[in-house]
Write a structure and sequence with these properties.
The protein has about 350 residues and is of the alpha/beta class. It is built from eleven helices and 14 strands. The protein binds 3-isopropylmalic acid (IPM) and magnesium ion.
Length: about 350
């Protein structure tokens, strides 16, 4: 098949991890006779430096015209980078939020599972995770606190800041359907996470999710408060199949879930809308402290490229081949520094990419 892929390398470790994902996609192209046309666009800090805005209209137009977007990571050190002296709407993250909203990517899938080879890197006691765990976090991505009205104003001699959180029934319903559909392809369980003991948005969330659940009698639904969920993730991660939650809770819980897989460098993500289009990116950030040192773990980005093949292009065998190659490389004992364990062979970002390509075969 022929596909147009917009590529955003981004900031920090973004360029190096995306290079490895492109290397793997090139190998897939050759092995399975596809044609992937990559068009690079700028976003985040790199775009601020080149054109003064974190996402230009031209870059957005190219992304909109493509079949899928592959993204590395954006942003810099919030304490030291000059990007964070700019007004909030001109900072790197504003580009990311804009592209998510403009492309309508409301459903963010973040799979977290434990590779048996990385069990030692998991900070949870072995007896609690025997047999591993395998969950899919379904995070709402274009609503809630991230997109509500914000203000910082002087009131009675002091600054007062406000961030508004809102969810409509339709915003909740469409993501709930996605969660139940995915659960049907997995282990038929949805855990909907909210803060219904405090927030109105959560009470509406619960009501709408209950309504959708009626159409899925074969899928079991439980509701869990977000603070309890944070605790359950480190106490008994095996109980989870699909976690359905709003934007901010999903941001926080997915970092926690990634850490129990051994490293945040292993967690991929897909951001989808109603049709096949999607943006694929690792769940981790730009790690400016290790940028350009060939130390980054490219696996989350390579797994995101595999998700792109599966969800946007229906290339199920190709996606499975990438996932198997990663499994094999880990089995052979190769590790980037973030997942290193004694007795393993430490490799850099580039070599990890090369090894995955080698294991794909010709
Ligand atoms: C993520 C990131 C972003 C988010 C940041 C960079 C704005 O943390 O994708 O999880 O909060 O959504
Ligand atoms: Mg995050």
């Amino acid at each position: 098949m022929k596909a147009n892929i917009a590529v955003i390398k981004g900031d920090g470790i973004g360029p190096e991890i995306v290079d490895e994902a492109m290397k793997v996609l090139r190998a897939i192209e050759k092995k399975y006779n596809h044609q992937f046309d990559f068009t690079q666009i700028l976003m985040g800090g790199a775009s601020i430096d080149a054109c003064g805005v974190p996402l230009s209209d031209e870059a957005l137009a190219i992304a909109k015209k493509s079949d899928a977007v592959l993204l590395g990571s954006i942003g810099g050190d919030t304490n030291t980078s000059p990007w964070y002296q700019l007004p909030p709407e001109l900072r790197p993250e504003a580009g990311l939020l804009k592209i998510r909203k403009e492309l309508g990517l409301f459903a963010n899938l973040r799979p977290a599972y434990l590779y048996e080879q990385l069990a030692d890197a998991c900070p949870i006691k072995p007896e609690l995770i025997k047999g591993g765990f395998d969950m899919m976090i379904m995070r709402e991505l274009t609503g809630g606190l991230y997109f509500g009205q914000r203000s910082t104003e002087m009131e009675d001699g002091q600054l007062v800041a406000r961030d508004a959180m809102s969810y409509s029934e339709s915003e909740i319903r469409r993501i709930a359907y996605r969660a139940f559909d995915i659960a049907r392809l997995r282990r038929n369980k949805v855990t909907s996470v909210d803060k219904a003991n405090v927030l109105d948005t959560s009470r509406l969330w619960r009501k709408v999710v209950n309504e959708v659940a009626v159409e899925y009698p074969d899928v079991s639904l439980e509701h869990m408060l977000v603070d309890n969920c944070a605790m359950q993730l480190v106490k008994n991660p095996q109980q989870f199949d699909v976690i359905l939650t709003e934007n901010m809770f999903g941001d926080i819980l997915s970092d926690e879930a990634s850490m129990i897989t051994g490293s945040i460098g292993m967690l991929s993500s897909a951001s989808l809308r109603e049709d096949k289009f999607g943006m694929y990116e690792p769940s981790h950030g730009s790690a400016p402290d290790i940028a350009s040192m060939d130390k980054a773990n490219p696996i989350a980005t390579i797994l995101s490229a595999a998700m792109m093949l599966r969800y946007t292009f229906n290339l199920v065998d190709e996606a499975a081949a990438i996932e198997k190659a990663i499994y094999d490389v880990l089995e052979q004992g190769y590790r980037t520094v973030d997942i290193f364990a004694p007795g393993c062979q430490q490799v850099g970002c580039r070599q990890m990419g090369d090894l995955i390509v080698e294991n794909l075969g010709d």
